[in-house]
């Protein structure tokens, strides 16, 4: 815990108003020991978003995702219920969707009546119960094995269609702290939207650098000087954050059009029905730390999962949510692909920037920051982190 104590000792101003706020010491972004503390303090205890119900719309649909080294399966069973359980076969520990059965993309949807281990063909139902274990009859009967073996279930909750897990059985429920978010997303019908196939990209940076970059619009007019024109930084607005809040929120108004990722060569897709005038004229950004970042447009919602792999490693998994009226359009596939191509440009610009910033944090001359009003969300994020870092250190001390 020495690394955590050092970082916290140097973080007394990280949650100040932006005029006097600092950023965390560089060790918070680069240190292996601090990453081990952070993994225990945050990722083993907080609610982590792993997907959306729109990724598994029909019975038999399922996908796998790995978070802090844990392979997980999310499945919709025959009765329509969403189940989340470990992907580790309870025979010899081979992950069900790895090795010879590994998907090419994290979160890619498959459909099957059973989940089969590619090692010895043990199979499981979509609620995690053992179905069959060939060649085991001299050890125990199939009925006996079914009585006592199943894939370990993982605590989960669904919030407006977003699927969250928590590895801590004693953690508070998910809902409290998200009341402001609920008010902001009212009208989007988030739980009813349809998901596109996910894409993933590996980034050589700390997960906090991604979240900071996503939350502050200060960089957009420079890093995205041609790709972000419809939503210039000077039209940004910020919202108060108080201890106990579970979401950090900002908005940016439109200057040119109603879609950041609009496809000029495609007919416009139907927008999300039910939005008010304010929602139709802005982008809404919401971070539910530590994993989830959401970008709400009038026509779609971009879901991003920042999945850490170490102090300087992460995987960015993204997919978009569209209203059924848009998905049913004959030009939907072409329009969605054109919008995805526009998004890839912005993501590529961010990846280059984040990786350079990570390298910068390794310098002995890394500053503690002078923040702009357009970075007011960074102290809010840091306040969320300090609350949890401090609580974890107190628990460790008994």
Ordered list of secondary-structure elements with their pairings:
Layout: H1 2-9, H2 27-30, H3 32-43, E1 48-52, E2 61-67, E3 70-76, E4 82-86, E5 110-111, E6 115-116, E7 123-124, E8 130-132, H4 142-148, E9 156-159, E10 162-165, H5 179-185, E11 194-195, E12 199-203, H6 207-215, H7 220-223, E13 236-238, E14 248-253, H8 277-280, E15 282-288, E16 292-296, E17 301-310, E18 313-322, H9 324-327, H10 332-360, H11 377-397
Antiparallel strand pairs: 1-10, 2-3, 2-5, 3-4, 6-7, 7-8, 9-10, 11-18, 12-18, 13-14, 14-15, 15-16, 16-17, 17-18
Helix pairs in contact: 1-3, 3-11
Folded structure, characterized:
By secondary structure, this protein is of the alpha+beta class. It is 27% helix and 22% strand. The protein contains 11 helices and 18 strands. Helix 1 crosses helix 3 (32-43) and helix 3 packs across helix 11. The longest helix is centred in the last third of the chain and has 29 residues, at 332-360. The two termini are 13 Å apart.
């Amino acid at each position: 815990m020495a690394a955590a104590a050092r970082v916290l000792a140097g973080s007394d101003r990280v949650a100040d108003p932006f005029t006097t706020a600092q950023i965390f010491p560089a060790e918070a972004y680069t240190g292996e020991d601090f990453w081990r503390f952070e993994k225990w303090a945050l990722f083993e205890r907080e609610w982590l978003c792993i997907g959306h119900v729109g990724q598994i719309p029909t019975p038999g649909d399922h996908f796998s995702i790995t978070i802090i080294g844990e392979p997980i399966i999310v499945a919709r069973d025959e009765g329509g219920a969403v189940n989340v359980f470990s992907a580790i076969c309870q025979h010899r520990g081979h992950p069900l969707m790895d090795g010879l059965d590994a998907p090419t993309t994290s979160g890619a949807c498959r459909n099957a009546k059973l989940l089969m281990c590619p090692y010895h063909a043990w199979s499981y139902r979509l609620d995690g119960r053992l179905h069959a274990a060939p060649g085991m009859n001299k050890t125990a009967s199939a009925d006996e094995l079914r009585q006592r073996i199943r894939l370990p279930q993982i605590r989960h909750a669904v919030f407006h269609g977003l699927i969250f897990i928590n590895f801590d059985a004693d953690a508070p429920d998910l809902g409290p702290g998200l009341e402001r978010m609920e008010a902001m997303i009212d009208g989007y019908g988030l739980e009813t939207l349809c998901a596109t196939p996910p894409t993933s990209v590996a980034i050589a940076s700390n997960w906090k650098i991604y979240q900071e970059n996503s939350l502050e619009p200060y960089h957009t007019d420079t890093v995205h000087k041609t790709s972000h024109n419809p939503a210039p930084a000077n039209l940004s607005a910020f919202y108060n954050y108080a201890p106990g809040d579970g979401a950090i929120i900002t908005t940016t108004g439109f200057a040119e059009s109603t879609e950041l990722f609009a496809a000029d060569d495609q007919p416009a897709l139907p927008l999300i029905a039910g939005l008010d005038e304010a929602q139709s004229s802005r982008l809404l950004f919401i971070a539910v730390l530590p994993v989830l970042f959401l970008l709400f447009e009038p026509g779609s919602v971009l879901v991003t999962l920042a999945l850490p792999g170490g102090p300087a490693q992460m995987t960015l998994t993204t997919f978009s949510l569209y209203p059924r009226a848009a998905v049913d359009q004959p030009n939907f596939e072409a329009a969605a692909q054109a919008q995805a191509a526009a998004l890839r440009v912005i993501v590529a610009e961010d990846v280059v920037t984040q990786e350079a910033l990570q390298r910068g944090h390794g310098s002995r001359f890394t500053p503690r920051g002078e923040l702009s009003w357009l970075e007011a969300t960074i102290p809010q994020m840091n306040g969320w982190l300090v609350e949890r870092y401090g609580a974890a250190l107190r628990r460790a001390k008994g």
